[in-house]
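Researcher: Let's continue the batch. This sequence belongs to beta-glucosidase, and it's 190 residues. Same format as the previous ones, please.
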Amino acid sequence: VRKSMVLLKNGKSMNKPLLPLDKNASKILVAGTHSDNLGYQCGGWTLEWQGLSGNSTIGTTILEAIKLVVSPSTKVVYKKNPDADYVKGQGFSYAIAVVGEPPYAEYFGDNLNLTIPLGGGDTIKNVCGSLKCLVILISGRPLVIKPYLPLVDAFVAAWLPGTEGQGVTDVIFGDYGFQGKLPRTWFKSV
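Model: Same format as before. Here are the structure tokens for beta-glucosidase:
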């Protein structure tokens, strides 16, 4: 998991990186459909042919891994789909939005527009519009991210990390460096 993660953006400018994240932050918002869902982390061809949604196997979600790695005094707030009003004025140090695709295999995964499904785009807009934020994209292929890049402080492609959410937190909190590389540049449009 650690070796497969690809850092796509780190900081709104080269002089102000967001990663590695601060483990001692006072309050962190974790949002998105993929934050607390092992089935979405695993993808298709895992528990069943088309995969499953939910925590129906043994493992560590990204949300659980975040709670394990941050300071005991850090308050971790999970909100699956927060609206923009919820995000403002809550005193969050930063946010982590984990979005992506539902599990699929073969032709069931065909997608002609490659947009981020399941309200992921709205989650990014609502969270990253008001806070410093990291977006973690869980998918089996590149998706359209260009519209969101100006809002985002850091962007990571986590592909399908499976049951080991702690492999994701090992890298975003700086215990290990990013090693993953893209075989081709990320597309700007379909």
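Researcher: Any comment?
Model: Helices lie at 38-42, 62-69, 84-87, 120-128, 165-172.
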